[in-house]
């Protein structure tokens, strides 16, 4: 009985270890597997690129199936070797996929630069958060861009990976991270990728549906920790999120706006085009102090998501493994 329960805790232990490791060290500065995947994806793209959806779908499917097969083989090997090997496998995969610590560190750096009036420094850091053109942004624009990125990536970089690690172990979390990386690379509406990146963008939308909505719920729950209103977060989410062009980013951004009592959205200049985003929330434009609060809110949501992921993994996995039929 004890051995069965211990085996069932392997995934929970791995997820917990990954969260602790990410909090301690953040993303590796060199040789990050996500960067290596991006390099491989670019190499494949350079060989097969054509300006149509079918070729883009083949490109996306080939890369994601390859990642899924490799991760599944790794997880099977871990399971055969016992609970600690399984924990190490899930932990390594989850650590690779998590980016919440680096997200908050970069957000705090942006807040410090903007608070000190160093707009040039903030413009240099902004590309680490999002794909907007920093050269055309003033202090207010840089603040809004950073805060919206903190909101969206609280889901993309932390909550959604934890959802997939809990639901499907190493294959789930690594395929999710690969899909999210492809979306960042080719999922935007530039002239080159409007057709070729369509499949990557749609797959990423589906992969983030649950994570984004869990993020919204956790923002509502954590709003009081930053002096915000759960009711305002809920109302902004339910009223405004559907107007955002992304079915998932709108949830996180609207919930953050309501929780912080600010207004997000408006003209958004990307490298490839200008987008006029809908208004999210009904407060004032964000200030540097709101960016600081957004980082604190993101951390609170991340911790809450980690606790949920470990608890759900422990209960569900140990219950299944300890079953008399197992």
From TrEMBL:
UniProt main location, coarse: membrane
Subcellular location field: Cell membrane
Record keywords: Cell membrane, Cobalamin biosynthesis, Membrane, Transmembrane, Transmembrane helix
GO biological process, one term: cobalamin biosynthetic process
Pathway: Cofactor biosynthesis; adenosylcobalamin biosynthesis
Membrane topology value: Multi-pass membrane protein
Superkingdom field: Bacteria
Pfam family, one: CobD_Cbib
Cited InterPro entries: Cobalamin_biosynth_CobD/CbiB
MF annotations from Gene Ontology: ABC-type vitamin B12 transporter activity; threonine-phosphate decarboxylase activity
GO cellular component: plasma membrane
Family label: Belongs to the CobD/CbiB family.
HAMAP family: CobD_CbiB (MF_00024)
PANTHER family named in the record: COBALAMIN BIOSYNTHESIS PROTEIN CBIB
Annotated function: Converts cobyric acid to cobinamide by the addition of aminopropanol on the F carboxylic group.
Protein's recorded name: Cobalamin biosynthesis protein CobD
The species this protein was found in: Mycolicibacterium duvalii
């Amino acid at each position: 009985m004890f051995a069965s329960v211990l085996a069932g805790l392997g995934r929970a232990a791995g997820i917990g270890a990954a969260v602790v490791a990410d909090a301690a060290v953040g993303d590796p500065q060199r040789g990050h597997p996500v960067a290596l995947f991006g390099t491989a994806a670019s190499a494949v793209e350079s060989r097969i690129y054509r300006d149509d959806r079918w070729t883009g779908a083949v490109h996306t499917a080939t890369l994601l199936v390859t990642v899924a097969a490799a991760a599944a083989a790794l997880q099977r090997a871990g399971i055969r070797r016992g609970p600690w090997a399984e924990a190490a496998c899930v932990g390594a995969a989850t650590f690779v996929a998590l980016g919440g610590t680096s997200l908050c560190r970069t957000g705090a750096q942006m807040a410090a630069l903007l608070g000190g009036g160093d707009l040039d420094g903030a413009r240099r850091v902004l590309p680490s958060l999002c794909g907007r053109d920093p050269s055309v942004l003033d202090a207010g624009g840089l603040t809004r861009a950073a805060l919206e990125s903190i909101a969206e990536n609280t889901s993309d970089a932390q909550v959604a990976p934890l959802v997939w690690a809990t639901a499907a172990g190493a294959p789930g979390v690594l395929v999710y991270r690969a899909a999210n990386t492809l979306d960042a690379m080719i999922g935007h509406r530039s002239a080159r990728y409007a057709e070729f990146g369509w499949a990557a963008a749609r797959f990423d939308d589906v992969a983030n549906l649950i994570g984004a909505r869990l993020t919204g719920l956790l923002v509502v729950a954590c709003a009081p920790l930053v002096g915000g209103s759960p009711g305002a977060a809920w109302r902004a989410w339910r009223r405004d999120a559907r107007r955002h062009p992304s079915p998932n980013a709108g949830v996180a951004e609207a919930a953050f706006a309501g929780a912080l009592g600010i207004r997000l959205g408006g003209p958004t200049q990307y490298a490839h085009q200008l987008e006029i985003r809908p208004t999210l929330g009904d407060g004032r434009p964000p200030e540097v102090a709101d960016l600081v609060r957004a980082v604190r809110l993101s951390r609170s949501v991340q911790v809450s998501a980690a606790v949920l992921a470990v608890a759900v993994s422990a209960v569900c996995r140990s219950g299944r493994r300890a079953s008399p039929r197992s």
